[in-house]
Amino acid sequence: MSEVHRGGVIGVIIGIMVSMLIGLIVINALIGSVNQSGWSAQANETWASLQSNIWVAYSLLVIIPIIVGAVIIMRYINVGI
Fold first, then answer.
1. E strand intervals along the chain
2. What is the 8-class DSSP label of residue 80?
3. What is the rounded CA–CA span in Å between residue 76 and residue 10?
4. Residue 2 DSSP code
5. pLDDT one-digit tens code per residue, 34-56
6. Residue 58, class by beta-carbon neighbours within 10 Å (0-12 exposed, 13-18 middle, 19+ buried)?
7. Does the pLDDT at position 22 exceed 80?
8. How far apart are CA 22 and CA 73, in angstroms?
9. DSSP string, 28-41
10. Are 20 and 62 in contact (CB under 8 A)?
11. Of the candidates 23, 29, 12, the residue with the CA atom closest to the CA atom of residue 60
């Protein structure tokens, strides 16, 4: 594959990573901005469960493209995959 195509693929992978970083910052800000004062015990428990589920889902959305991107980059630089 030519150098132009390699650079394009790596650029796309870097763009995805930057988008994920921005998503991480936004999710963290949104979760941190919730005021829980006056909530019932059940509401606090539900909110804690929801936060946990949000982070698990986001982690999976981040890990999968990182692995796929690493494999693609390694193929393009001919590391033997």
1. none
2. -
3. 9
4. -
5. 999 999 999 999 999 999 999 99
6. middle
7. yes
8. 22
9. HHHHHT---TT--H
10. yes
11. 23
Determine the Cα angle at 78 with ends 72 and 81, to 5°: 65
Q: What's the burial of 61, exposed, middle or buried (CB within 10 Å: 0-12/13-18/19+)?
A: exposed
Give CA–CA dist 12/24, Å, rounded: 18
Unique residue bearing structure tokens 């005021």? 35
pLDDT of residue 23: 87
The answer to whether 81 and 75 are in contact (CB under 8 A) is yes
Measured distance CA(21)–CA(19) in Å, rounded: 5
pLDDT band for position 13 (50/70/90)? Answer: confident
Structure tokens that stand for 60 in this block? 């999976």
Could you give the CA distance from residue 66 to residue 68 in angstroms, rounded to a whole number?
A: 6
Structure tokens at 78: 């001919």
